[in-house]
Every structure is written in C-alpha cells, then in structure tokens.
Design a protein that fits this description.
heterotrimer; A: mainly alpha; 2 domains; 11 helices; 2 strands; B: two-stranded antiparallel sheet; 2% strand; globular; binds adenosine-5'-triphosphate; binds magnesium ion
Chain lengths: 264, 314, 252
C-alpha cells in the first residue's frame, strides 16, 4: 500500500535504465561535485548542467519534468541559507526596513544564495534520476564492485530488505495506538507529554524487540543455507562498451561545464 | 507524508567541497575503525542483527509524536543504537541508515554525506554511549537519566555541528543559523530523550538480558567515557560561545584557513545589520540552555515515576 | 484440555531400508527453561511424505529446527546415517532443506536471485553452477522469470514458493517445511499443494491444515506437549475422533 512511497525506482526500458549501476553512481557523484566546485553566479554553466539533466530525463523516458517534480525536497532547507542574502560582502542592493530591523541585501549575497539554491536543486535532481533509473539492489552491487567494505553493503542490503517489513510493523503499531487513543475520547486529547512519550517509547521498544528477535530467525535461516560467518555474493554485472562510452562522454560533458564556469 | 525530513539532513550544494571532503575524511576514519573493531569483536550473528537494527532505526524514525507548538519529536536513534549495540556497531548502523536515506530518498545529499554521517551517526554515538558508559554499572534509574541527558545533548551537538558546517561553508550566517538550529532542536532533542528513555525502560522490563552491563560494555572500553565527556563539554561550551560572540569564532576559523567566503571579515559587519532581539545572545543562550536542561530533568523524573507505577504490559 | 503425557498409542517406529531421518529420544529445553521436546522419536524413509500436526506450542517448529542442527537437544538425530556433529554440519545443512514458517525471515536478500543463490554460493559451488542451480530451483517452483524481482514486492504465495526454491537450490535430500500453507488464500494454497505433490523429494512438514494432510500426506505424526502422541497412516488417524479431539485437532 504505502510501499510506493518508498520505492522511487521507475520501471521503464531505456538506455539509462540499462547502463551499469557503477557508471550511473559515478556520474551522479561527478555531477554533484562539478556543481559544487563551479564558482558562484555562473548561470551559464549551471544552465548547461540543467540541460544535461533534462537530457538525462528524456533519455530515461521519465518525461522531462520527472525529476523536477520531486525536487521540492530541498526547499525546507533553503530557509537556512536565506540569511546569506544579507552578506556584508559586496555592494548593497537595497535597504529594507522591517520594524526595528534593517536588512541590506548585497549583490554578493544574492548571487551566493541563488548559487546555493541552484546547486542543491540540480544535485538533488541528479540523485532522483539515479534512483529512478537504478534498482536499489543493483546500486548495492555497484558499491560492492567499488570496494565499499562488505560489512557496510551487507547492512545496507538488510536495511533495504527489512525497511518495508519493519515500517509495516511500525505502521501497525501506530494504527493500534490511534485506535486506542480514539477510545479515550471525552478525556483530554493526547494526554500528558510524558504519557505520550511513554507510549511512543514503548512502541519503539516493542519494535526494537521484534527486530531483535527477527534477526535471530534470519540468522537461523542463513545458517540453514550454509552461512558460516563469511558472506559471499555473486556479481552479475559487467561493464559493456556502451557503459564505458557513457562514462567517458558524461565526464567529458562535465569537464566542458567546468571549462565554461572557470574560463571567462 | 510518512517521512518528514529532519532539519539535520544537509542536502548537496550547501557545504563547500572542502568542508564536505574534510568531514568525509573524518567519517571514513571513524567508520574504518568501526569496521575493524566489529570484525574483531562481534560474532557472525551480528551481521543480520546490525542489518535489522538499521532497519529498526529507520522504521522507528517514523513514530513521531507531537511535543509542543506544532513540532514533533523526531527520533534520530544514534544514542539508542549505541546503548543497545555498543558504540562501534552503533556507528555502522547509523552510517547505513543515513546512507540509505540519502541514496533512496534524497534525505540528505551525497557529497555532504560524510558530514551528515559525522553529525548524526558518529557525534551522537560518541556522546550517547560515552555518557551512558559512565553509569553502566549503576541501577536502571541512573542509567535512564544518563541515557536521556545523553540523547538530548547528542541531538543538540548534532545541531551545533550542522550549523557550524553551514556557516563555515558560507551558506548561512552564524548568528542566525545557530540560534535557529539550537532553538528548533531543543524540543526535538527533548522528544529524542523521552523516546530513548521510554524505549530503554520498555526493553529493561521485557528483555533485561539485552541491556546487561557486560554486554553493552563489551563493545567499548572506558576510553569512551573520556571521549564522551570531552565532546559533550566541547558542545556545551561552544554553543554559547558561538552564539554569543561569533566574531571570535570567525577569527579562529579564518586563522585556520577554514572560512571560505561570505562572513570572513568580522569587523566589516555593517552597523545597520542588527537584530536587536538577538543582541544579548550570550546570556540568553546560557539561560535558555539551563532552563532546557532543568525542564528535561523534571520530565525525566516524571517519566521515570510513571514508568515505575504502571504494570508491565506487553 | 486433558493431555496424557505418555503416548496414547503403542508406537512402533517403522524401520525401512534407507531411512533418511532417524530421531531417537530427542529432548530440548529453551534457554529460558521452557521444555519444548520431551523425548521425540521418529523415522522417515526415503521418498516418504510425512506431516507433523498438533496444537500451538506442541513443539513442531522446535523439532524442525533440530533437523539441520540449528538447535541442539539431547538425544540422537541422524540424517542418511550421518549424525549431527560440528564437522558434519555443512553436509547436513546441504541435505536438509529447512523452510521457515515466515517467508519474510527466509527471504533476507533484496532480490529473489540473491536469495536463491545464497545457499549454493555458501556451499562453495562455482559460479556457473550457482546460476544453473538458481534457474533449476526457480523452474521447480514455477517462478522462472522472478530472479530480478524484489523480495518485498512478492505476494504471500509467491514468497512461499521462492522460500521453497531457496532450499531446493541446494538440492536437499529431505525438504522440511514449517506451516507451508498458512496465510495463503485458497488459490495460492491450491497451487502450493499441487507444487508439493509434484516435488519428487522426501518431505516432512508441520501444519494445521488437516485437509492438505489428508490430500497429500499418507503418513501423519501427532505431537502435543513435546511428545509424539501418535504416528501412523493419515486415513486411520483421521478416523479416530477421540484422539483428534484430545489434541485439539478437527477432522477436515
Ligand atoms: N525462542 C523460544 N524461547 C523460549 N521458548 C520458546 C521459544 N520458541 C518456542 N518456545 C516454546 O516452546 C514450545 C514449543 O514451541 P514451538 O514453536 O515448537 O511450537 P509449534 O508446535 O511450532 O507451535 P505452532 O503451531 O504455534 O507453530 C512452546 O511452549 C513455546 O512457547
Ligand atoms: Mg510453529
């Protein structure tokens, strides 16, 4: 039911979907890094980066606005950066008198603010594109290939697998709590803070115990299938010529963007 | 929505590459240490256990509860993970949680993931476990109080470090981001503390064998106490200092070569730029902190009472 | 409910050539002190399909966990003549395919392929062989194209099938299933019964589904309170209303 809230993979058959997960992960990180090191206020370079993103959207047949629609996630955080508009460096652009506060936006501050905004917004779209076109298990395989320690990839694999099972359990606990608190109608809603915290804490404790006991049963299931403490995995992926081509091409485009940004 | 992004998950674009890489470095060192320690000390059973604990922390973060004034207690879980699993395994579990949140849900960025892991997965574990380790052989009441204080402080410290990173990256002004972050996280940390305490009390009632002192201590020696105290003190001393006299901090950062752009010149702050109600931040932060700590203590005592009174129900 | 502790039936354990499973006087108590098995003896012949039934808490699941050495009680168990010792464990685990009650515990990998490949991989088989085994096992449960699917997207019936495939990939000598038909809708249950009928392998299952037992399993073992209280042809035991009632069972 709620599972789709979690799974951002978008079933499609496209060039981008078929690319090796390692290539996609590497290009995503390179893209984000490239945005991060572009100097502030390089709107042309940022615009080209955005075009690249649109092209990626199109090639993966998600529809041009797909990643755009979901990129609102960064918005709340933008609040944090607003104060930078009034950076004392640079030329004042205006004076705003708000009661007893005087705010002075400067050209430097405004450029900085919008650069942060654009960087963040481009980066999050690229990350969305990555998970929309790559099955998460493939991504885990990619990290194994890229020599991420096995213990971490294993924890992540378990986390991914049981995320759904445990959030289901958490939701059931939540529903049970709601059902019970509804029966208390007439009394003060919600109850005391400590009481609410206690109920939530008990749910967390219960969830903990269930997870703990489940991990025992999983351990048994692993033992039953030959696990002796050393995990082995197969990696059914191999880089094709197309993958290499895509990697080199993307890096070339990113280098071009950097060139645009730094050579004036 | 089920997932309300906590204001601690920094997205990409807000930190400079330099700050991002510095914290990636620190995180990699700590995670590397954690891996080699867990490989040595933990049995084969721990692999599925850590995986399930990561999923548990993830799921538990959905169990919000309203605290006051529209904020809801958001559970981070670093302190709880460290207390029940030991510090090294706690770090690995939190690393996995934060990595999946960033990768799968874009809750936090990729280039800045090192900083996010450091703030929410390492700092919280060091403070959470370090302070708890002090009283690990004491009675349950003392342990619960320590756990509560530790998780509140861990949340505040994470907020503090997040603000400092944002400021050093020139993404925000210190005198604004710091009080704002600490202010927002005072009730959030309170929720964290209450949930952690209640969860530990529940576990203690139903499966006390999981919280025995030998078990928890096996993962971390007494060195954790020292680390926990030092980091906590640093956090406690730094927050009034930073919000009270950002100029001093700025000079230090500048001398160390950290400060990028934006707020680098302490003396150039335009005289027009004043926010009177933040004027006396030095004093007000300290007072606010003390009041917060007192309120927390009172609530913990209340909670402890009500827990003792109620019969165990399963 | 009145439960007589010594067996109600005179149990003569049928011996046959090529006994694949031999349990003698197995006793087990959980660490918290609860006694779950109080002396269980059982033989299963090659090719036999045996159902273990009994009320909740009878000890069925506990018994099954002993069959591949996950739990170690007192008494003796031998699989195809081999006793369960530390050195034998890898072979025993390859020979006894144990499928847990809850497929969410059995399927612990993100994708179906990874899960089915887990057993063969950890038996140390070469890569090419692992792929063959996975294909073969998925084909055996009629889920050929499911390798790439994510485990958490499967329906309950599909999960049960994949769970069976995860152990079939190890080519076990004996398949041990804990409550295979629980939680399935009628159609999924029917297709599971057809699958179990067609699998050419020795089978020991625990279940509360007596209709399935009647249809599929010629031999039935009734357990209660950690004892085997009856062991014999299903048709005969199902006729004995008094016996069934004494152990909380109902004739289908
Ligand atoms: N992990 C455990 N720790 C302690 N006691 C246990 C544990 N698992 C089972 N028991 C107890 O052992 C006894 C046998 O349980 P078992 O699970 O084997 O029964 P069962 O026949 O499989 O029941 P069901 O039909 O409900 O699955 C029960 O009394 C149960 O409470
Ligand atoms: Mg059972």
């Amino acid at each position: 039911m709620h599972i789709n809230v979690f799974d951002h993979y978008h079933f499609q058959d496209s060039l981008i979907h078929r690319l090796d997960a390692r290539v996609k992960a590497a290009v995503t990180v390179a893209f984000i890094l490239s945005n991060a090191i572009l100097p502030d206020g390089n709107w042309l370079a940022f615009a080209v980066a955005w075009l690249v993103l649109l092209l990626g959207n199109d090639l993966s047949r998600l529809g041009l606005g797909y990643t755009f629609k979901r990129s609102y996630i960064v918005l709340p955080f933008v609040l944090v950066a607003i104060s930078v508009i009034f950076s004392p460096l640079g030329k004042p652009l205006a004076q705003w008198h708000l009661g007893f506060i005087t705010l002075i936006p400067t050209n430097f501050g405004v450029a900085r603010f919008f650069s942060i905004l654009v960087r963040s917004w481009l980066s999050v779209q690229m990350a969305i594109l990555l998970v929309a076109t790559t099955q998460f298990p493939d991504l885990i395989h990619a990290f194994e290939h890229l020599r991420l320690p096995r213990i971490l990839t294993t924890i992540i694999a378990f986390l991914y697998r049981y995320l759904f099972v445990l959030t289901d359990e958490a939701l059931r606990l939540l529903r049970a709590r709601e059902a019970r608190s509804a029966s208390l109608q007439g009394r003060k809603r919600g109850g005391r803070l400590t009481w609410r915290a206690k109920v939530t804490g008990s749910m967390v404790g219960q969830l903990f115990l269930r997870s703990y006991e489940r991990s025992d049963r999983i351990y048994y299931a692993m033992l039953g299938r030959g696990y002796t403490g050393h995990l082995r995995t197969l990696n059914p992926h191999a880089m094709t010529r197309l993958d290499w081509l895509a990697l080199i091409l993307s890096l070339a485009v990113l280098s071009f963007i950097q060139l645009l940004g730094w050579v004036r | 929505m089920l997932l309300s992004p906590a204001p601690l998950h920094i997205p990409d674009g807000f930190l400079t590459p330099f700050i991002s890489l510095v914290f990636w470095g620190a995180t990699m060192i700590m995670v590397g240490l954690a891996i080699s320690k867990t490989n040595k000390t933990l049995g084969e059973r721990q692999i599925p256990l850590m995986g399930l604990m990561a999923a548990f922390i993830f799921a538990a973060q959905m169990l919000n509860f309203p605290v006051a004034g529209g904020t809801s207690g958001h559970f981070l879980g670093g302190a709880l993970a460290a207390i029940v699993l030991g510090p090294w395994a706690g770090i690995l579990v939190m690393t996995a949680v934060i990595a999946v949140q960033a990768l799968l849900f874009q809750d936090g960025g990729l280039l800045v993931m090192g900083a996010n892991i450091f703030n929410m997965g390492i700092l919280t574990v060091v403070i959470g476990f370090g302070l708890y380790r002090m009283v690990i052989h004491r009675k349950i009441g003392a342990r619960l109080v320590a756990a509560g204080l530790a998780s509140w402080l861990a949340t505040m410290a994470a907020a503090l470090l997040t603000s400092l990173q944002l400021w050093l990256s020139g993404a925000s002004r210190l005198e604004i981001v710091l009080p704002a972050m600490l202010g927002v996280h005072t009730p959030i940390g309170l929720g964290e503390a209450l949930i952690t305490v209640a969860a530990l009390a529940f576990i203690e009632r139903t499966r006390p064998d999981l919280l025995t002192s030998e078990k928890a201590a096996s993962g971390g020696g007494r060195g954790w106490i020292i680390a926990g105290i030092i980091v906590s003190l640093l956090a406690v001393l730094l927050s009034p200092l930073a919000s009270g006299s950002p100029d001093g901090l700025e000079r230090v950062a500048e001398n160390l070569g950290f400060l990028e752009i934006g707020q680098s010149a302490p003396c150039e702050i335009l005289p027009d730029y004043t926010i009177p109600f933040l004027g006396e931040t030095h004093l007000s932060t300290i007072i606010a902190g003390m009041v917060g700590a007192l309120v927390l203590l009172g609530l913990l005592i209340l909670l402890g009472r009500s827990l003792r009174k109620s019969p165990p129900h399963t | 409910m009145p439960v007589k502790h010594p067996p109600d039936y005179e149990i003569t354990i049928p011996e046959c050539k090529g006994d694949i499973l031999r349990i003698r006087d197995l006793r087990f108590a959980y660490p918290d002190g609860r006694v779950a098995l109080r002396g269980v003896s059982l033989n299963v012949c090659e090719g036999e399909k045996v159902a273990v039934v009994g009320p909740n808490g009878a000890g069925k699941s506990t018994l099954m966990l002993h069959l591949n050495g996950i739990l170690r009680g007192h008494g003796s168990i031998s699989i195809a003549g081999m006793s369960i010792t530390r050195e034998n464990l890898p072979i025993i685990r390859a020979m006894v395919g144990l499928v847990f009650h809850n497929p969410d515990d059995q399927l612990f990998s993100p994708t179906v392929f990874d899960d089915v490949a887990f057993g063969p991989l950890h038996m140390g088989l070469p890569e090419a062989e692992v792929y063959t085994r996975v294909d073969e096992a998925l084909a055996a449960v009629q889920m050929d194209d499911f390798g790439k699917r994510l485990s958490h997207h499967l329906s309950a019936g599909q999960k049960k099938r994949i769970a069976i495939a995860t152990v079939l990939a190890m080519r076990p000598q004996i398949l041990v299933l804990d409550e295979p038909s629980s939680g399935l809708d009628p159609r999924a249950r029917r297709s599971l019964i057809n699958l179990l009928r067609e699998l050419p392998i020795t089978m020991l299952i625990s279940t509360h589904d007596l209709a399935m037992v009647e249809e599929l399993f010629p031999r039935m073992v009734i357990m209660d309170e950690g004892f085997v209280v009856a062991d014999g042809p299903t048709a005969k035991l199902l006729e004995d209303g008094v016996l069934l009632e004494a152990h909380g069972l109902e004739k289908p």
